[in-house]
Amino acid sequence: SIAQWLNAAAEGEGEGSLKNPVIVTHSEFKNSKQFIFIGDATGGLCLMGTIDQGKIDTIRTGDVLSGISGKLDLSTTTKTPQMAIPNSLTVIDSLKTLEPVEVTIEELLREENDAINNGRPAIKYANRLVKITKVKKTASWVKNNPRFFGLIQENGADKDTLIYSTNTLNAYHTAVFSSTIPMNIVGIVDFRCINANNLYSIYPRSTEDIKDGFDAPVISPAPGKYYTEELEITITCDDPAMTNIYYTFDPTIDPTIDD
């Protein structure tokens, strides 16, 4: 598994291979290099190579790969795993998804003082597809335009901020990242954006990775037929101040703001 390989590489035994196929969680071409992020149920890896390395530029998110073997190293600066793209990659399936691991910002940033991590955040999350729920933007800035950066913080928390980063400014502007509405964010934990304070960066792959974090309203009692003179109906929401409720007594139409 990826986790087993990471542990072996941390102990200086990086030569190995993956026994089972893995899913491509993200693939992109940047700075004259191809980056292929792969994952299984235990962890994530980033394979790096040049575009002249044959067919690797045809590998897409959702592809299932086999034949991954080689030397897995830990970066001397970020202590995160990296490996050259092997020439033996084979696509055996496509259009598959890997469910993101749901974590908190505190879990991502928690330092582990062992021989592998040496006071840095746990490498088990590096390059992995994760989901963070109910976060709000606290700051944003542009660096090396159009790269877009910002800070997100878990809703109601007074600490534990996480950098997010994107390649396209316009697609992820203030209208997408909100400072008032809690958001759910899926993204790659990006080893290329660890800053001096050892903070990971989460890298949403597209605007589809950013959704509002409101849960569906809870209506009580459950839908059905009730034969009673009085029936109290309650609707509870995450944030009543941010919620509009429309209702109608006409079962043939959907309610609108005018009902």
Pattern of helices and strands: HEEEEEEEEEEHEEEEEEEEEE
Taking pLDDT < 50 over at least 5 consecutive residues as the criterion, the unreliable ranges are 169-175, 193-198
Contiguous helical run count: 2
| Biggest sheet record | 7 strands, mixed
Helicity level, as a percent range?
under 10%
Please identify the structural class as seen in this structure.
Answer: mainly beta
How are the strands of the biggest sheet laid out side by side? 7-8-4-3-2-5-9
Q: Please indicate the percent range of residues in DSSP E strands (runs of 2 or more).
A: 35-45%
Q: What oligomeric state is this?
A: single chain
Distance between the termini: 56 Å
Overall shape: it is elongated
**Mean pLDDT value:** 76
Rg, please? 22 Å
| Count of extended strands | 20
Structure description:
With 259 residues, the chain is mainly beta. The strands form five sheets. Strands 7-8-4-3-2-5-9 form a seven-stranded mixed β-sheet, covered by helices on one side. A five-stranded mixed β-barrel has the order 13-14-15-17-16. β3 and β4 form a beta hairpin. It is elongated. The N and C termini lie far apart (56 Å).
Itemize the secondary structure elements and their pairings:
Elements: H1 2-10, E1 15-17, E2 22-30, E3 33-39, E4 44-50, E5 64-66, E6 69-71, E7 73-74, E8 81-84, E9 90-93, E10 101-102, H2 105-109, E11 111-112, E12 120-121, E13 129-142, E14 148-154, E15 161-166, E16 183-190, E17 201-203, E18 210-212, E19 218-220, E20 234-236
Parallel strand pairs: 4-8, 10-13, 15-17
Antiparallel strand pairs: 1-6, 2-3, 2-5, 3-4, 5-9, 7-8, 11-12, 13-14, 13-16, 14-15, 16-17, 16-18, 19-20
